[in-house]
Amino acid sequence: MPNLTFGDTAKEYGTVNSATLIAESNYFVAANLNIVNLAPKPEGGKTVGGQAVALRVSGDRSPIYNYNIYGFQETCNDKGSHFFKDCYVSGTVDFIFGSGKSLYLNTNIFVEKREGGGFTVITTKARESSSEDMGYSFVHGSITGTANNSFLGRAWRSNPRVVYAFTDMSNVCKGPRANPNNREPFVKQLSGAEVLPFLVLDFIEPTKWLLTPPNY
After folding, report:
1. pLDDT tens column, 19-45
2. Which family does it belong to (predicted)?
3. Is 94 a catalytic residue?
């Protein structure tokens, strides 16, 4: 798999424009790439502007297949509907973020320990109200890494929506918030009927744009 690399940070370009690969067109399709931001890992709470995004997808109706995405503030689902399948995403804090609507199928999330300490968070979702049709759904994936007691997500706006289903969570996410009974009050355990719309391709309305994935 070829590598696409870049090495600058938010200090130089702003967070969303620091990405190694920026896809702004609709119907952007990509497969079989390593997307890498080579900027140094920022120390916890000390490196101003140290965020470094690897991939930003800002167009609508974009499928991403078999990508390895390496960075620290990693993937920006800026807007639109996206489908990530068989991908690997690594990062430290808020490394899957934005206002998009994305289905992650069979994706491995790797949470890295921050230099100098500091908490780690996988997602931060920008969603202003419950009427906005956006969110992230992680289905049949896994969470591994070197960090401890990571947060599955935090709010960027007032109504974030992130769903984890059939996800194998290692000890990276174990601790005081691993037990559903001990999570924050805003976290909701969905019933089978409630979670079903987030488990299927209809979540991103695929009949309008999703083609058969390539062989890899």
Report:
1. 999 999 999 999 999 999 998 876 655
2. Belongs to the pectinesterase family.
3. yes
Q: Which of 8, 60, 86, 94 is flagged as catalytic?
A: 94
Residue type, 81: S
Token pair of 166, please? 């059939």
**Residue among 43, 54, 61 at smallest CA distance from 96:** 54
pLDDT at 176: 52
CA distance 173 to 141: 14
Residue 202: the pLDDT is: 95
Residue 119 identity (one-letter amino acid): F
Nearest to 122 by CA among 146, 137, 143, 103: 143
The span from the CA of 200 to the CA of 216, in Å, is 22
pTM for this one?
A: 0.91
Please, where are the H alpha helices in the chain? 10-13, 192-199
* CA geometry: angle 163, 164, 169, nearest 5 deg: 155
DSSP strands (E only) in the chain: 3-6, 21-23, 30-37, 55-57, 62-70, 75-77, 81-85, 88-91, 93-98, 101-105, 108-111, 121-125, 135-139, 142-145, 151-155, 162-165, 168-169
